[in-house]
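Appendix B. Extra example for self-study. Work through it before the problem class; the solution is given directly after the inputs so you can check yourself.
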Amino acid sequence: MKLGLLLALVASPLGAQSVRGRLEGRVPTLAIPVVDSLVQVAAREDLPTEPLVQKALEGGAKRVPPQQIAAAGQVMLGQLRDARELLVRAGDAAPTTAAEVTTVYSALKRGLAPRVVARIVAALPQEPRGSALHAVADLAAHRFDADSAASLILDATRQGLRGERLLDVSTAVLHEAQRGRSRNEALALVRQRLPNVPPPPKPGRASIAGARRPEAAAPPP
Amino acid sequence: MNAIDPRIHQALDGEISRDSLPPELRGTVDRLETVAALLASAPAAAGLEARVMAALRRPAPPGAGARRLVRWLTTPHPVTFRIRPAWSLALAAAVALLTLVPTQEAGPVLGEHEGIAQFVGRFPDARSVHVVGSFNDWRPGTIPLEDPDHDGVWRATVVLPTGAYEYMFVVDGERWVPDHMVDRLVEDDFGRENSIVIVRTARR
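Solution. Structure tokens for the complete assembly:
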């Protein structure tokens, strides 16, 4: 118990120091204390902190005024809380993982209704929902009915498709729509074909040969 | 089968005189002797060797060569391959080198949780284009796009860990532009829109 308390006391300032180190020189000086305190609050509440850091770095790179960076951070903290609340309401046991909170936050940010996100979360309790939510959001972005899109993606999971393969389902629907089918027809046609949806082409040798690693490849937030 | 009177055999073998036979048997013996004389005067039949040689000299019927080839190809034959152990080791080492050692053209070796992201933008009047996003901590200037043929289409191919990232293009070091060639866009909370790229594993 004493060791845990000692580690917490040591880790907190160290964590804050590393965040400040990442922000200094890249984020306006005035915004750093605000972002730093938001990160501390998020850490205390077991919320993901990396999205807050990324948003501050993004604002700094885009030369956004410090007040706007601070405001964006505060809004994001609230959205992260909402995402976690949705996860718990939909059945995830607390504490929720930072990755799942970030996934739900991103889905809500892409415009999916909380009701639709909660439906996906509840239907896929034992697995990452990122690809399923992106697949539904991709279809919703093309004005497909989000509930119908969610039904199709959940049907695909029942047919054994998982993870990134769910993105192939939404891609197949969009291809059918591009061929002139109505949205309902495209959804119905792909549902009939499940689980047979074509995977994307593998990157060619020339693509891989010409690829390079960025200097500061960050893990996905 | 009719039984032959034994006196005919005896007459033919010379054991009894032909005159001692009744007239009907004497006629039969005469006929048999005539047939035997005919058979004895016939030319001798060709021997086995001569018949085989004649068959070999006969021209093959059309298509026989193709049939023989097909039969040879489809029939199992024992094959003996003899090689010195030193040569077989050298051959195995060469095959291992060719398959395991990446060549310069093969590019980076991708990990299990890595994929390829291709960024393409059309900026005809640009002097420089970079892609900046959550994959490089929003650090401008680290991932340039290239336009080697000066057609205004700028490209970059990047190895990234799998996942979803927000990004924008930075044109000439100051103009932030979303990627209009992708459908995934999200508000950036600063009054603009970021594009979203989902990097999928390259090992499928």
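Self-check: Confidence is low (pLDDT under 50) at residues 1-16 of chain A. If your reasoning did not lead you there, revisit section 3.
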